Amino acid sequence: MSQLKTILAGLGLAAVTSLPVAAQDRFPDQMVRTPAENIPWQPLFPGVEAFALYGGLDQGVATAFIARTDPGQSMALPHTHSDGYWGFILAGNHQHWEMSEPDQGPILTAGSSWYQPADVPHADLCVGPEHCITLVVFEERADFIPVQ
């Protein structure tokens, strides 16, 4: 059982421990397009669905996915990752902050981005009133390590 699955099971949470990998490779040799209305969302955390563009959690490879978070829902409990990643807000009102910050930071709207260094506890919140759509890109491996 992966570290993520073990920790989440202990917390009474269920999650997809390996984002479903899209049919294409990281660098497909032909065009791939998925209209928004045809995105095959998969459960990731309660109130959060994801669509893997390539890679996957706990696969040890570069990973990119789009997350759709319900309004008022935290993307996940406070956590870290073994490698840093970029986040890009495509829609919605989102907050991303490090646990060492005095507050949850500014509201990030479409077009906003952040870089999250490795091993730094952080969290996310979809402020609402609409869903938050976020592109997450790990250039190295993607994992999820909950913190207390």
TrEMBL record:
Pfam families: Cupin_7. Residues 31-137 form the ChrR-like cupin domain. SUPFAM superfamilies: RmlC-like cupins. Keywords: Signal. Residues 1-23 form the signal peptide. This is ChrR-like cupin domain-containing protein. The lineage of its organism: Bacteria, Pseudomonadati, Pseudomonadota, Alphaproteobacteria, Rhodobacterales.
